[in-house]
Design brief:
The termini are far apart. A seven-stranded parallel sheet has the order 3-2-1-4-5-6-7, sandwiched between helices. The protein is of the alpha/beta class and 254 residues long. It has helices spanning 17-28, 41-53, 68-82, 105-132, 155-175, 201-211, 221-232, and strands spanning 8-11, 32-37, 58-62, 87-90, 137-144, 180-187, 243-246. 44% of the residues lie in helices and 15% in strands. Strand 2, helix 2 (41-53) and strand 3 (58-62) form a beta-alpha-beta unit.
């Protein structure tokens, strides 16, 4: 069993999908959890209540990770309420599904600001708290196969995930020796409120299930969250600047 007892985790975009699963799995491992959201207050509150039912402290914070002032205020709140921050899960994402030829500058800016700049804002604001923690602090970002494979209507998000992966490696280079580990979980296709909006979603879900080499049930948000908990734990202390692929083997096939 992995124990995160006494640690505090901040999960962005934690009101639903993979973020929600991460928050609940971290709580089950013993961490107190700060539930960040942007628009789904009721859903975020429900997640926080579930965290408390697991015996852990929680807090709900509305903040736009693309805005440095929002992030700075959120991190300040975490420091004041909990006195520490050990784990950051950068899950909040934006972008929408559209062909690149239909994308506008505003779409590109919003996608990059949330999916890439959001992580940098978090690390810049939380660096002091993270370097104070006992043991090694853990920063974990969520990526996808679109970072290296071309997927229909996924060009903006895929490009941002490629940039995110590069950013994580460079953060590891600059701050790895200060007591922080930076890693990524690259998740295969998980059925969530967001991915159900993908063009041809049902066909994609069926295809992903057929390509899974370890199970016929398909990948779930809990599967991804389990890997996040591993990377948040001391078991991953010597994993730095890496991308852990969680897809049941989907990605190794042509």
């Amino acid at each position: 069993m992995i124990s995160l007892k006494g640690q505090v985790a901040l999960v962005t975009g934690a009101s639903r999908g993979i973020g929600r699963a991460c928050a609940l799995k971290l709580a089950a491992a013993g961490a107190d959890v700060v539930v960040n959201y942007l628009s789904s207050h009721s859903a975020a509150t429900e997640v926080a209540q579930l965290v408390q039912q697991k015996g852990q402290r929680s807090a709900v914070v509305k903040a736009d990770v693309s805005e440095d002032e929002d992030v700075a205020a959120m991190v300040e709140f975490v420091g004041e309420k909990f006195g520490r921050l050990d784990i950051v899960v950068s899950n909040a994402a934006a972008g929408g599904f559209r062909p690149l030829m239909e994308a506008k500058r505003s779409h590109f800016d919003a996608t990059m600001s949330t999916n890439v700049l959001g992580l940098l804002n978090l690390v810049q604001s939380a660096q002091t708290l993270l370097t104070r923690t006992e043991g090694r602090a853990k920063v974990i970002a969520l990526s996808s196969h679109g970072s290296h494979s071309a997927l229909s209507s996924y060009g903006l998000i895929g490009s941002s995930k490629a940039a995110l992966e590069s950013l994580v490696r460079h953060l590891a280079l600059e701050l790895g020796n200060s007591g922080i580990n930076f890693n990524l979980v690259l998740a295969g296709l998980v059925e969530t409120d967001s991915t159900r909006n993908l063009p041809g979603a049902e066909v994609l879900f069926d295809y992903a299930r057929q390509k899974t080499l370890v199970s016929s049930r398909g990948l779930t948000a809990d599967d991804v969250a389990d890997s996040v908990v591993f990377l948040a734990s001391p078991l991953s202390d010597l994993i730095q600047g890496a991308t852990l692929v969680v897809d049941g083997g989907q990605g190794i096939q042509q």
